[in-house]
Amino acid sequence: MQLPYGLGRGEGREPLVLRNTTLKHRTAGDCVSVHAPSPPQESLERDGTRTSRLYASPQLVPQPTDIPLSSVFQETNEQKLHKIANELLKTERAYVTRLNLLDQVFCAKLMEEALKGTFPVDVVKNIFSNISSINTFHSQFLLPDLEKRMGEWESTPRLGDILQKLTPFLKMYAEYVKNFDKAMELLKQWTDRSLQFKAIIQDIQSQEACGCLTLQHHMLEPVQRVPRYEMLLKDYLKKLPQDDPDHQDAEKSLNIIAMAATHSNSAIRKSENLKKLLEIYEMLGEEEDIVNASNEFIKEGHILKLAARNTSAMERYLFLFNNMLLYCVPKFSLGGPKYTVRTRIGIEGMKVLGTTNEDYPHTFQVSGKERTLELQAFRKTIEIFHQKNETFKSASKDVLVSTAELGKRAPRWIRDNEVTMCMKCKESFNALTRRRHHCRACGYVVCWKCSDNKVALEYDSNKINKVCKDCYSILTGEEKAEDKKKGILEIEAAQFSGSSIMCGFLQYCEKNKPWGKVWCLIPEKEALVLYLYGAPQDVKAQSTIPLLGYSVEDSPRPADLPASFRLSQSKSVHSFAAESDELKQRWLKVIRVAVTGEVPECPPPNDATVLTHPEQASIQTG
Hints:
By secondary structure, the protein is of the alpha+beta class. It is 33% helix and 22% strand. The protein folds into four domains: 77-284, Dbl Homology Domain, Chain A; 297-386, PH-domain like (Roll); 408-481, Herpes Virus-1 (2-Layer Sandwich), CATH 3.30.40.10; 493-596, PH-domain like. One of its GO terms (biological process) is filopodium assembly.
């Protein structure tokens, strides 16, 4: 380190007068002197005092021994102990201010009104418990003692004896903590019941002394104070030498305070949860009944909601609790994030299942009795989910409501672009005469003829809803018309997708027709047949290709798309194109076995290839 004789400024140099060339500083152990050789100087007589004038010049000043700056200015043990004691005093002053606000403002104002008969006096007493006794002890005894001790710290650097006075009064905290849940419940109950009670609290909360915090926030302070004493005292003992006179008192105080803090741990966890519930309560415009001791906050985050009728995605926000999921819509606010609750879904009976969406990866659906939502998680959320949950997969068929839950649970709507025909009568949809409608009971996409039935649905507060003819028969108990025998093509794509050797989107061309995207599927039960569907949820295949005896060609032709291959037999030629060469080779591996009459094996899963479930095949966009 260069000792600061002076600061050189070009050619002009300002002289710096030093009385001593020895710099002393204290360390944790002893004092160390740092000496520097004397630079050129001239002696002067000034007011009878002999003074040495030193000139600071890089060329003239010898270089002293280098010493790390941190060692010169290192904080001593005594300074650290003083700092801890000072922090204890500072936090104690702030704490007493909060206690006074609770005791002399909130409690006093509410008690004054209660004595008029507006609401019971016992309500106020039970809410604030023994806060007056806690306030008296800290404001009239502990705080004055700490202030006095800090004023004479140079001669009496001790904390242990002061904090020992606190230990007999810890029973007051046990009583306050034990009453805390009851206090929160009463506070909420009477805020809803009495307008005058609510008005007094809101008036005080609007004052500057409250710091924009609610009464509940301030009531958390005594619950959290004892662990704060424990933390500061532990830090103090670490810095205190074993032979220090204060060590025994400090250690004794810590043991008693730590025991009290242990008993408060569950209350502290509850208080932290309550603090979060209050924050969410404010974000929801103080309109939702969520501040309850039985409610436990778990997780929150942004999410995308996928519209059932088109491919648009809308930003939404979820709050997950131990007993419900709040599905919210963001609203504009200058004072921080604000949300409006659109739907409240109970956790009981809730299902979370993976879904297929060609346009949006990482989609899943949340199905509850009140409503079913299809959502897209952000990538970071997906990574966390995969780390913590190994069950993030299921066949799309599983998202449908069972017969026992029909009308009692909101269904997941099959998306419009997942079908090309009515899922009941199998007639193709068009924009004019046969448009898409959703059955409100099962979520199927049906035509207007097949949805011309209405029935009350329990999950929708028994409101009348449009349902398909099958759901109408089940819900009303009427005899169901006998189904006609299904044709060879009338097998649902979703029925096969869950147990298929291979499935996914491919581009398809027959003869000289234009290329079009189809959902191709080779089922395990019919391993020698390739089914072609318009969409993954179609109930009827567009066509089938019995693979036995076909020739497989994969040599490129000028008119074909990249990664294409052909199946030919006599004059019949079917052309296909995959998204990539790797995808193409996987299809060919299966088809080349099937055309020989042998049953092909399911190819192993791959992050960038076709898989057996439609929800896992969203990467095949063709």
